[in-house]
Amino acid sequence: MIGSENWPLQGMRIIDLCGEIAGPYCSKMFVDGGASVIKVEVPGGDPLRRWRASGEPVPEGQDGALFRYLNASKQSIVLDLNDEADKQILLDLVKSADIIMEDFGPGGLQSFGLDYEVLSGINPSVSLVSISDWGLTGPDAQRPSTEFTLQAANGGTNSRGLYEPGRRPQSAGGRVGEWAVGCAAAVAVMTSWLSAKQTGQGQHADLSSFEAQILITTIYPDLYGLWGDKPMGRTIEVPSIETAKDGSVGFCLITGQQWLDFCALIGRQDLADDPKYAIHRGRTDGIVKKATEDWINDKTVDEVIELATLLKVPACPVGNGETVLKMDQMIARKMYVDNPHGFKQPKTDYHMEKTSQRAVGEAPGLNQHRKQILDELKLQPESSVRQTGAANSEQELPLEGLRVVDLTAFWAGPYASNLLAKFGADVIKIESIHRPDAMRFAGGLPKDEQMWEWAQVFACANRGKRDITLSLDKPEGLEIVRKLIADADVVIENFTPAVMDNFGLTYEVIRDINPRAIFVRMPAFGIEGPWRDRRGFAMNVEQVSGLAWVTGFEDIPITVRGACDPMGGIHAFFALMLALEDRKKTGEGQLVEVPLVESALSVSAEQVIDFTAYGDLLGRQENKTKQFAPQGVYACSGEDHWIALSVENDEQWQQLYALMVADGMAASLAGVDCENLAARTELHSLIDLALDQWFASKNVNDIEARLLDHGIPAEELVDGYGVMPNRQLEYRGFYETLTHPVTGNTRYPTEPVKYSRFDKIFADLLPPLLGQHNQEILVGELGLGEAEMKELREKQIIGERPAFM
Predict the structure, then answer these.
(1) Does domain 4-210+364-384 have CATH number 3.40.50.10540?
(2) CATH code for residues 403-535+562-598+771-794
(3) Tell me, what's the pLDDT at 6?
(4) What is the pLDDT of residue 4?
(5) What are phi and psi of 352, to 5 degrees?
(6) How many whole angstroms separate alpha carbon 427 and alpha carbon 686?
(7) Residue 334, class by beta-carbon neighbours within 10 Å (0-12 exposed, 13-18 middle, 19+ buried)?
(8) Which of 146, 449, 532, 648 has the fewest CB atoms in 10 Å of its CB?
């Protein structure tokens, strides 16, 4: 390790008033980058200090291991904001802070007289990032909810499962929505901080957890529903997680070619010839499942993966808190390190050639640093206010002036570069007419002759970019991309390592062309190690990392379905921001590697942490949790109408029980002690039987309204294609409708954060047509002549439509 003065975020100061997972994971990311974080806790401390996923008590005298992972190297002070002296301490801390983070919900900070106007009056450059379930204002801002019910409201839960007797729709496990919100918060903190450094003015960033979950844990279902004419429905991928002779193997077939290759792998050309099996939803009749089982059940996991790799079929072992530690890729890359408190945890998921990284420190005891913090405040000059440096008020968005050569495809890479475009960077996306971004054809609808412009993932993950086509396997195409790299700040790609090597665009070559360029690589499993050449997608890394292990039925693990792509994209964005900060000091570019699987391991860390700290092997709980009870999905009257219920505390249970008694549906619970969480967890099956009987006769909308009126978190399970209309989303303007030259009036999601200073953010950002900016960039900026352009088209090096269509 080089000295701490080389940490890219050295000197950044964050005051974090958040508890549980989302806020602390966000501030952990900044601690890892070198920022100083003061954790302000309420009397009694962060509830996560007492959390253990198994439900067993945390050992006496210790804090929970997950708490210690999320809060390493932070300082702790307890402040009761109802106490004027403690409130003044917080206000004094604001003077020297860059960022204040809070998750008190609507009216939370305001109730203490601490709204953003007060904070910015003390320190104009400070930014406030507020995390709440629905956003701070709007018709549903106060709606009772938990992470579980938010999943039901965003359409994710109803998309996951089987239409079989006794099978309920399944939420994603591992509290994944909270980790997703933490990732979204990191974007809000980073962009607010960068803006304040440039302009001298902070701002208020209002983050909606509901919107963050829509954007990160679902696959843009609203746009698919807008274009399609059928409900999304409930499925699991086929094939997905399959049982071999000595364990489980995870498959992920995104493209049509991968399906054909899989059929060749299992020796079933007849399946490849049947067009109904070309899409996932056509494979639910049991034929493909049976064919897969017949082929795999006499083979070992290693044998299956070796054969699949030879045919370029994405396949991987299925991990959990124990087995992931034994995987040769994780061992080779030294993915797990020792936490000072005596357990294993994943290291940072990014690898930087030149930038030093902070070692894992100890987590603070409750109020451990109060005296130190107060002593430092006494030394702070009374009139001192944080200085952010020279202001440039003309730069409205923090990444304006940044030039990016975007070689990414599919989702994770485009998501990362899309964030760059949204916050002002000039992102030039490079495709080939022979091999356009495959997401143009994944889920695309043949609404028009230009079917490659009708794909929801491509449309949403590439907004605001400029698009050119170049065949990089031709010297003319390669020469043009070298010219673009020469003038770029960033080059980003997410292929297997061999792809860029085969193009001759290694890091050494890029460095020779442009020593200031930062080269971001996002392979599935890393540029080194025994898995380096394996193909992998979000579902694969969910299978490897354990996220699938804690999602689904007791007998069938299910993938979360895509969340790791956006979260991986955010981690790559974050690592790039660190590298850019480092370049401000050194003037030099560097290699930044962010393997998709390692981002997934960071957000599924609890499984390894709990296994190595306590010996707990976490598994699937079918919608239940040790955090809230009762919690589950229950069928209401009518066909396929479901409600998600999540009781947070004893008071809510009393309200729920009273409603059941009023309806004469609580007889089976009479005299049964359910007055505390431990008792309700123990008797969950009995409570479920009573709830099943009660809900079965209820109209889902009527009972949802009744529960919410009594302060009980409950949500109808929404079909993913039917998230809109939604009055809260409409109030906050989460979706914006723009006119696309092919798809017409189209509704796109923005970001889950409302910023007080970014007036033009996300406005009018359309996804590009294939090759739309060939003329603008190649002629207008690189100076190619019309004769050169004609020759490039004749050689099919450039074009505006796929060469095969």
Answers:
(1) yes
(2) 3.40.50.10540
(3) 81
(4) 47
(5) -120, 130
(6) 56
(7) exposed
(8) 449
